[in-house]
Specification:
By secondary structure, the chain is α/β, with parallel strands linked by helices. It is built from ten helices and twelve strands. The protein is globular and about 65 Å long. The structure holds glutamic acid (GLU).
Amino acid sequence: MAEPEVTRFAPSPTGELHLGHAYAALIAHQAARSTGGRFLVRMENLDQSRCDTRFEAAILEELSWLGLAWNGPVRRQSDCMGAYRTALEALSARGVVYPCFCTRGDIAREIEGMAAAPQGPDGPLYPGTCRQLSPPERQVRLAGGMAHALRLDVGGAITQLGVPPMHFEETGRGPSGETGVVAVQPALLGDIVLGRKDTGVSYHLAVVVDDADQGVTLVTRGDDLFAATHVQRLLQALLGLPVPRYRHHALIRDPQGRRLAKRDRDQTLAALRASGMGPEDIRRTLGLG
Ligand code: GLU
């Protein structure tokens, strides 16, 4: 018998659930229930300008309609800011965080002017402009109250951690369900933002703190977050957090092969329900019947 898994469904309450979300929730729920484990729900509502409590209520109602009961109270990221700040302070104390004063425009111009800008899986990475500022220059800008984000000095972090190389366990990636031990490429996304200019906390930082605080043993999420796992694994190492296993499931796509998004109004659970579909029909449509 497999160990009881603790899994989570972590939507951002910025819109209605569509079939892709239902798939993610069903996968997480099934992984927990089939092992006698726990299925948790977390509202990733850091960006308060885009989130709405009405969407939170609708999401919970639709999970119940799907027949997915969750364990314990729903965690809301907006209630956990203190935990994220503590983690950020711990990383700062290790000397692997620096203030970044660049605007999006500054970054675009800098990249344009470079002969060979560093590349990530989704395009150019932050070129490290503010990592190179002298300490006095940094001080002047901070003292002047200049708006800034906080970034991870990924090169410094890798040097600090040294060998041995890091790994994570993949339990079923993408449509083929590939499994195995994945060697981490900690610099895959470059000097990521840890503290956003507007909210003070970034997705990557919050997620590793949440998964550890909630005791998540198996992170199930879309394959679009595979690259994110590499850098989140690095943050776990820096913060001394436990490392869950991962399952990066296939993404649900529309007939044109594009991943579902807010524009696909006819694929929301609300629209499908209104058309007369029941929870069993949704499962069958998703190949989980
Ligand atoms: N909030 C993210 C989303 O809705 C999920 C993040 C995660 O599972 O780590 O895509």
